[in-house]
Amino acid sequence: MASTAGKRTARRTRTTAAVVTALGLVGSAAACGGGTSAGGGDGSTVTVAASGDPGSLSPTTALASTALAMNSFAYDTLVHIDADGSLVPGVAEKWSATTTSAKFTIRPGVTCEDGSALTAEDVAAEYNHIADPKNQSPMLGLSVPVTAVAKADKATRTVTVTTTKPAPFIVQMARLLPLLCEKSLARPTALARTTNASGPYRLTEAVPGDHYTYVKRDGYRWGPRGSSGAGLPGKVVVKVVANESTAANLLMAGQINVALINGADQDRLDAAKVKYRSSEALFGQLLFNQAAGRPTADLAVRKALVSVLDLKQLGSVATGGKGRPPTGIGEITPTPCAGDTVTGNLPAHDTVRAAAALTAAGWTKSGGTWTKDGKPLTVGLNYATNQNDIVFCARDRGATRLYRVDAAGISASPLPAGTGVSGCSVAAKAGRAAVVVSDASRFAEVVLLDLDAWTPGEAGQPSTGRQPARLTDHMVRSLPEIALHPVTEREFSIADGTVVHGMITRAADTPPGGPLLVDVHGGPQNAWAPHSDPAHLYHQELASRGWTVLTLNVRASDGYGEAFYTGAVGAWGETDEQDVLQPVAALVAEGLVDPERIALTGYSYGGYLTCWLSTRSDLFAAVVPGGVLVDLKSMAGTSEEGHLIARYEIGDPERLTELSPLSHADAVRAPTLILHDGADDTCPVGQAEQWFHALRTRDVPARLVVYPGSSHLFLLDGRPSHREDYSRRLIEWVTTHTNR
């Protein structure tokens, strides 16, 4: 559907008209304008409404229509298109072309924002950068022909672009190529929120989701036909206004100067006599993936999907009755190709014929779904959102880190190495994030991260950006005399080839041959982090007493890939027991710890594995399971997660008894302290009571402590007195039973 709308200006001044005409504005359909700041001359400001945030503005990767239009403020092109469809000189003062080549002569005196000259070598480098498939630029095929190769002649200031396949529109495509100085190609993602402009404006302020400010460059004189842009305003502000009716209200109130209005709001703007300039644009597209193996590789399927739609009705609704059927595809007038290439070439709206075509192609309809060879026929709906960047947290090798995904891909935050994240709150409009972080020397502190200065690294390199501003300093203020013992990362190779990541906490002056505490995390899809841990303060206390504390991210831990994450499914204890026993054996062999003074603890799944290992090895002089799970069969019917664990973690019902520590209690010899929460719905207190009973009846030294009213996560958020008591009892038990 082609949409006719209006670029409107309540005060149709020369400056506003120049912005609309020369730069195309945001969305080439229709714009209206209003306001009192759109006067003439370099001192004026024009405010333009954009319907969505552009996301990344990196010229070689940005493909959103808003980003393309905004980049036209900052980056010039080799050629421009006139109102009658003819090409006029831009940075290229002249050109010649065949169906497989084009030669551009670069205008002298063109500079980028940083003062460097834009040369023929720069233009050739950009063509080759985009044409190289490894750079995955979406501009390939849009502004640069596939198979294009560019060569520069410095002496003649010429760039010659050749292709191995016919490309009759090489020159026309060049009007969509935003020109960069070559050094910007080394890190194109660095231009996501800034510019190194070759055009009339430079970006001076970027507040994602709110506004972007462009200021006119001094000395600019290489516009269309060599113009200086004298009629352009000194400043252009692009304001994000997601709702079209709101944009219309702002126009009539004079708070913005230009807006793109497509729908019914045109009528009230006409009634208010807001001036406008109309143009047409394609409004909505149906795209088919014709790759081999796709349903839409079949022409019959494509025709059926088109004919089942009432395109006229859809177009009428989408454009508020203002549109008309298009006569061409994807080109904004004026176009290099005239004539109607659509009428008569699209299947007519006919649902019966569409169904018959699908049936003939081997598709079967059942319950409203068409299937073939067991696969459904699906249609994806892609739509723009107001915020294109997503900030999220994910684990990587035990530590929770902050990431951002945008048009350029996923990048890790520029937080210092060794930093873990436990909380994050994003202020999108301000481009800031408050982040709760921990490192080896501090417990959780709040820092302020500048998202706009977050620049993704290239080729696996870390991101860069301003160092976060620290907002709190609780550790120094509250515990000035406390220095945390360091956490050292270590990898252990298991006999079956698995590599287990571990962390060792011990005082720097601890001699070898001392006692060892092994701590197993819960989950099992959880992980120990290589930084300070306020929930397990007994690690630090034991390290102060000469102990070594070993934490291991055994199979099923989060942050090591899917295969590792699912490594214990169906084989709890059996698969991961060596992930504990072999690293301990390695430390014993190195002489770091005393083999007679080894204690074992763990909570939740860690409590399960602690009990399991105490039935499988006599290595441990003392064990302290917490939040225990010992009878998988009874757990399946009493735990809030019992059904899910039994079905998806264990799988085979016959294995529930076999993998239960309770079934092997006869083998336990180590003195056992059981610490459990009294209001636990995940690992019900009956599990602890069963284990205590099994050990006492077998004359194993055992003690059971239940914390009344505490939930499964009380070590993280429970009563401080309970948490302190948990650590105190654990320390007393392991020290008592490992003393020689």
Features:
740 residues, elongated, 25% strand, 20 helices, 33 strands, five-stranded antiparallel beta sheet
Structure description:
There is one protein chain. The chain is an alpha+beta fold and 740 residues long. Among the domains are: 394-478, no CATH class; 487-738, Rossmann fold (3-Layer(aba) Sandwich), CATH 3.40.50. 24% of the residues lie in helices and 25% in strands. An eight-stranded mixed beta sheet has the order 26-27-29-28-30-31-32-33, sandwiched between helices. Strand 26 (487-493) and strand 27 form a beta hairpin. It is elongated, with a radius of gyration of 34 Å. It starts with a strand and ends with a helix.
The stretches of 5 or more residues where confidence is low (pLDDT under 50) are: 1-40, 383-387
CATH class category name of one domain: Alpha Beta
Strand content: 15-25%
Q: CATH homologous superfamily of one domain?
A: Alpha/Beta hydrolase fold, catalytic domain
Q: Can you tell me the overall shape?
A: elongated
Strand order, sheet with most strands: 26-27-29-28-30-31-32-33
Could you write a compact summary of the structure shown?
With 740 residues, the protein is α+β, with helices and mostly antiparallel strands.
